[in-house]
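Q: Sequence in, structure out?
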Amino acid sequence: MITTENIFNGLNLLVLLGWIPLFIFPYSRFTKKLIDGLYLPFILCAFYIYFLSQTKGLFSADFSSIAGILDLFRNSTEESAAAGWIHYLAFDYFVGCWIVNHSIKKGIPYIVFISPLICTLFAGPFGLLLFLILRFFYERFTLKDA
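A: Exactly. Output:
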C-alpha cells in the first residue's frame, strides 16, 4: 500500500542517492547529466505539489508572523509535513547541484567546494553562505596570482 510515509521514505532515499555523485564523482559525465537534466529536483517538486494539494488550510496560513508559522506547524498533517520537508530536499539539492556546476565551470577545485557541499546537505543556507564566502576569497586569491 502506498502511504505518505512510504513516499516520504522513498524520496529521502532517492535524494540521498542523488547527493552521492555530487560528493564522490562531481566531474563525471553521469553527474553532469544528472545536474544538467535536473531530474531529481523535478521529481521532488512534483511530489511537493502533490502533498501541497493534499493539505487543508495551508493557503490561508499567516506567513507574516512567527505566531502564524507556529500555528501552521501545530496544525500540520502528514501531508503538510511531507510537503515542508520535500521543500527543503528540493531546494538544498538544487543548491548542491548549482555549487558543483558553478565550481566546475569556474575552475574552483574540489577541495574548496566539498565542505560547503556537505554543509548544504545538512544545513542548506549555511552551506550556500560558506560556498559564497569561499568562492569570493578563492577568486580574490587566484586573481592576484594571475
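The chain has a mean pLDDT of 91.
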